[in-house]
Amino acid sequence: MAASVDPLVVGRVIGDVVDMFVPSVSMSIYFGAKHVTNGCTIKPSIAAEPPRVVIGGHPDVLYTLVMTDPDAPSPSEPSLREWVHWIVTDIPGGANPTRGNEVVPYMGPKPPVGIHRYILVLFEQKHPLGSSVEQLNNRANFRTRLFAARYGLGLPVATVYFNAQKESA
């Protein structure tokens, strides 16, 4: 019998971006009709606008969604790891990010070279974050783990990732 292997481990999401965690909330991501599954490929042109995100959980609980690219500017030399693409806080359980507080506006994938991973990480908040989250001066060298520690978010409750590469003209 073959052992099942977690795609988040195989894709080095666990390790490069987050620590090992036990998923406890459902999260589904869609770009148009395309349902994002771990490790699938999404064309940057399809992901130019924010995805539709469906979050489970209880309506009395708030969540933070973080989207990063740990492969910036190139997978072989990720000197800008992680490039933050989106942060939304105070999302009620059972709702979507439009009901939350967009701290960093969505930026679609624009991988200059190679295949990049785009990670969407969901954290359960212990309390409303409101305006306590500081504005970022730049999107480069963001650290999901440090962000989670700074705002008392703990380990993720859900994570989904997709791959994208530069489209030919």
UniProtKB/TrEMBL annotation:
Family: Belongs to the phosphatidylethanolamine-binding protein family.
GO biological process: positive regulation of seed germination; response to abscisic acid
Any Pfam family: PBP
Record's protein name: Phosphatidylethanolamine-binding protein
